[in-house]
Amino acid sequence: DLRGTLYDRIGPATLRDLLERFYARVAQDPLIADLFPGSRDPALWSVTLDKQFAFMSGFLGGPPLYHRQYGNPMLRARHLPFPITPDRARAWLACMQAALRDTPDLDQGTAAELHMSLTRVAMHMVNTETP
Ligand code: HEM
């Protein structure tokens, strides 16, 4: 079904499922895992996941949970403390691609659309060329 927002087509339960798979991949990724607070204290992965869930909910056309709780996301500014090279953006997207593939409740069209929107945002986060 191609009607409605991406949020309507995915739904909160599948979105959470997707993000759990995504951060399980991120936690194992040699290029980006160390950037996350969860790499020092595993209990913090769920904090990161909750924020990403809140952000994606609004980003995909659902309730703007992140805005309500934290205000304007200013994503690029919030990522400036982390040196994000093109390789790291590609690693982030590869984790997402794998998570999309591994989430059975997502149809291929919806997964492809989501991947395309996230590619744009991920490339926008690149803030350094050198590792
Ligand atoms: C936070 C890395 C791309 C959305 C973070 C954090 C890191 C990170 C290390 C801090 C986590 C924490 O404090 O819990 C990266 C890397 C990316 C990337 C390496 C590669 C391009 C993206 C993209 C999005 C995104 C594409 C959105 C679609 C967020 C959000 C937060 C966040 C919403 C929470 C911000 C906050 O602290 O309130 N990211 N990120 N990130 N990231 Fe990314």
From TrEMBL:
Record keyword Transport present: yes
Pfam families xref list: Bac_globin (PF01152)
Superkingdom as given in the UniProt entry: Bacteria
MF (Gene Ontology): heme binding; metal ion binding; oxygen binding; oxygen carrier activity
Keywords per UniProt: Heme, Iron, Metal-binding, Transport
Family, similarity comment: Belongs to the truncated hemoglobin family. Group II subfamily.
Protein name, as recorded: Globin
Organism, scientific name: Deinococcus aquiradiocola
